[in-house]
Amino acid sequence: MKIHSILIVDDDENDQFICEYTIRKFDASIRVIKAFDGAEALDILHRETPDAIILDINMPVMNGFEFLDRYAEEFEVHAPVVAMLTSSHLGKDRERAMQYSFVKSYFEKPLQADHLRTMADLLGA
Q1: Domains of the chain (ranges plus CATH)?
Q2: What are the Response regulatory domain coordinates in residue numbering (predicted)?
Q3: Residue 71, pLDDT above cutoff 90
Q4: Phi then psi for 78, rounded to 5 degrees?
């Protein structure tokens, strides 16, 4: 299935740039929405539901795990694919993230076209 919109949640402008660049190369028609922390992402999600969310773990204001907790509490309908994209190599972070039913993937930075293909395949599943 085609990805129409992706919300990137990452506090690092360079990482956001790399994500957007990779998404544009993968499919220039995908609408990219950006948030710099979990709180900003929640505000956006009260207005719209993207097809996918790419979420970092380590962020100020509200980190990725705090976001996942609030997202699970506040929303009955979740984005079809939530993917963690992080520099964390810790197995415990991966296990914790994958406990949420709506988290479908866990990738290590940087975002790659293969990650986007996996997300598109998950949308079609």
Answers
A1: 5-124 (3.40.50.2300)
A2: 5-124
A3: yes
A4: -110, 160
Sequential DSSP letters for the chain: ----EEEEE-S-HHHHHHHHHHHHHH-TTSEEEEESSHHHHHHHHTT---SEEEE-S--SSS-HHHHHHHHHHH-SS--SEEEEEES---HHHHHHHHTSTTEEEEEESSP-HHHHHHHHHHHH-
For residue 114, count CB atoms less than 10 angstroms from its CB and return exposed for 0-12, middle for 13-18, buried for 19 or more: exposed
Average pLDDT over residues 61-79: 94
Spatial neighbors of 125 by CB under 8 A, at least 6 apart, are none
CA–CA separation, 125 and 120 (whole Å): 9
- Cβ-contact 44, 33 below 8 angstroms: yes
- The structure's pTM equals 0.94
Residues 112, 114, 120, 125, CA torsion sign:
negative
The radius of gyration of the chain's CA atoms, rounded to the nearest angstrom, is 13
